[in-house]
Amino acid sequence: MTLEHKAITAPLPQPLDPDQVVATVTASLEDDKADDILVVDLRGRSSVADHLVIASGRSQRQVAAMADHLHFKLKHLGLPVSVEGQTQGDWVLIDAGDIVVHLFRPEVRSFYGLERMWGLKTPERAEPVITPLD
């Protein structure tokens, strides 16, 4: 008995442009009225991710809704997405591979101070632009 092997030739999916993914994330957060959106370019600085996004919502409900919408949009792009903390809505972490998003209520964001940890401006003075680490 002889088995025949046929190669399946399908085009490989094109990798997503990281800047397009960041644009999708920031557009989603802006649509959901997120406050103090900060994007940090980590390329060459961290092995964990290429971009870090930090944003605030005014309530647990808003933070959870922002996370839900963002999760849907990132999944729609075909990215592997993990979400932690969505049921509590105080701090939600969304890991989409090369981009990690932290969504906070303002007082929780202030308490943990991720901006300080990365040597960035505090949310009160942050500008919603891509900020490279120098």
Automatic annotation (TrEMBL):
Gene3D superfamilies per record: Beta Polymerase, domain 2
MF-aspect GO terms: ribosomal large subunit binding
GO BP terms, alphabetized: negative regulation of ribosome biogenesis; negative regulation of translation
Listed transmembrane segments: none
Xref: NCBIfam families: rsfS_iojap_ybeB (TIGR00090)
Similarity field: Belongs to the Iojap/RsfS family.
Name this protein carries in UniProt: Ribosomal silencing factor RsfS
Taxonomy of the source species: unclassified sequences, metagenomes, ecological metagenomes
Gene: rsfS_7
